[in-house]
Amino acid sequence: GRPRASSDRVAVVGEGGGNGVRNRICDRADAFVASPSRTAILFVAACALVASTLLGNLEATVRQMHLPGGVSGGVTDVASPLTTTHDALDIVNSWKAWGDYRKTQPPQAHEGIGGRAVPPAPQTVISIWLLLDSFLFAPTLAGLLILIGWRRRSFATNVWEGWVGIVPWLALAYLGLDQSENALTAWFVFHGHISFLAVRIVSGSCW
């Protein structure tokens, strides 16, 4: 019976150790939610800045994808609530015209119109922009707002605590609307079988 009692003690100790680790993890998570560190906020802010810079570079590339005399525009122009349906279609058609021109170039061609290098297909750059915004920039920005809201809540008085507590929910609402906007924009750009009014309504809600 003695070896059995020893094994029982080992099992109890092991179980207690496992609970202790879980408790420490939960305590640290609760402390982080109660008041995120400045380091964590600065790190997420830096990630959002990097993502924003990448999106800006891709946007500038897309704006150059038009023939001489064609309409210049980016993904944000198409998704803007201030853009009319006619202007959005002009931008999309301009991208398609550039894509058709690119297909006429031989594979070994490296020079485009005006001696510039021929960039990738518009569909490729637009797809990268939408994926980057959906899975990096928007989640990072929403996370940044949530962290700031949690940190400010720890310093807020009773009067402002309720208002500050709304910030994480607003960040999640923004994330959901941004994902919907990107999905509708992608469908409009690549298929065109959706009313541009739906894109404008969702993008206006994000604003």
Mean pLDDT across residues: 80
Percent of residues in beta strands: under 5%
Share of residues in helices = over 70%
In DSSP terms (H or I, runs of 4 or more residues), the helix count works out at 8
The count of β-strands is 0
Structural class: mainly alpha
Radius of gyration (Å) = 25 Å
Molecular shape: elongated
Taking the sheet with the most strands, its summary is: none
End-to-end distance: 72 Å
List the helices and strands in order: HHHHHHHH
Low-confidence stretches: none
Q: Could you describe the 3D structure shown?
A:
Helices cover 76% and strands 0% of the residues. It is mainly α and 207 residues long. The radius of gyration is 25 Å and the shape is elongated. The mean pLDDT is 80.
Short overview:
This protein is mostly helical and 207 residues long. The chain has eight helices and no strands.
List the helices and strands and how they pair.
Blueprint: H1 2-34, H2 38-63, H3 75-78, H4 85-103, H5 122-155, H6 158-164, H7 167-190, H8 196-206
Question: What are its keywords?
Answer:
about 210 residues; mainly alpha; 8 helices; about 75% helix
